[in-house]
Amino acid sequence: MASPIAHVSDTANWVAMYRAMESDRPDALFHDPFARRLAGPRGDDILRTMPKARQFAWPMIVRTAVMDEIIQRAIARDGVRTVLNLAAGLDARAYRLAVPPSLRWIDVDLPAMQQYKRDALARETPRCALEWIPADLADEGARRAVLARVATGPAPALVITEGLLIYLERDQVAALARDLHGCAPLAWWLTDTAMPRLIKMLERSWGPSLRAGGAPFKFAPPEGTAFFEPLGWAEAEFRSNWEESIRLNRTMPFAKFWNLLGKLYPKKTREEFRRMAGVVLLRRR
After folding, report:
1. What is the CATH number of domain 56-284?
2. Burial class of residue 26 in the structure, from the number of CB atoms within 10 Å of its CB (0-12 exposed, 13-18 middle, 19+ buried)
3. I want to staple 84 with a disulfide (CB 3.0 to 4.6 A). Which of 78, 94, 156, 159 is the partner?
């Protein structure tokens, strides 16, 4: 069977379907009224044909909810005035989050992906000052041109790389981290992380389809967020997907039982499982 993933950008349609699923719930953690439209038939097809796609919906839903919380808190508490959304995909936070109209929000993605999104949202009004920058972030010159634009705007700024780093090589992430650190207004970096143990688990179900579509999982540093420290970024906050899934009541079957069973493991092992995947807020050092 052919892979439902034909390009790494297709993963944006896939994740948008998870946001649509959550938004349909009467007890939804968030409401994204644009998700189903953005996901389109492509997203529906991927969700229907990817192995265990519905079974693994919970981490994507948790990630969205937790990032929503941290973004809004960063604006309200830490005075963030600019949000730079790299590889923004089909994220519609600039349209759905309650943010100040004066907030500068910059969406950056490949030209084709960005045009698709702009067309889908053409009749909608963003809640803040939204800017669009079509750019290939793999191109060092294009990436630095984006950051040069951010450098001229209001500070402090928060950069988001949701669902991006896992598709990059280790040296690509390091280069990105250095460039981000070189942009003075960027005080905070919000991203998601994974450990090698998780990649091995996901390889059994999604690996063949993702590789066939040219979108294999790559970045999962065994040292975790310590990877970013020599590059100028320190962990300010880590939210474990597992713990947050229980808090938000969006978790796998029998999660509470497994959570209790896990207490029998040594502390080091428990911490390894806790940090297997999560959302991390990094602070400029």
Report:
1. 3.40.50.150
2. exposed
3. 159
- Tell me the pLDDT tens digit for each residue of 62-91: 999 999 999 999 999 999 999 999 999 999
Strand order in the sheet with 157-161: 129-134, 104-109, 82-86, 157-161, 186-194, 277-284, 233-240
CA atoms within 13 A on the CB side of 168: 20
Q: What is the pLDDT of residues 32-54, one digit of tens each?
A: 999 999 999 999 999 999 999 99
Q: Whole-prediction pTM value?
A: 0.95
Distance CA 216, CA 202 (A): 11
Sorted by where each begins, the domain ranges of the chain are 56-284
Q: Which residues contact 180 (CB under 8 A, 6 or more apart)?
A: 147, 159, 186, 189, 233
**What b/e readout covers 218-238, taking b as 16+ CB neighbours within 10 angstroms?**
ebbbeebbebbeebbbeebeb
Q: Is 127 helix (H, G, I), strand (E, B) or coil?
A: coil
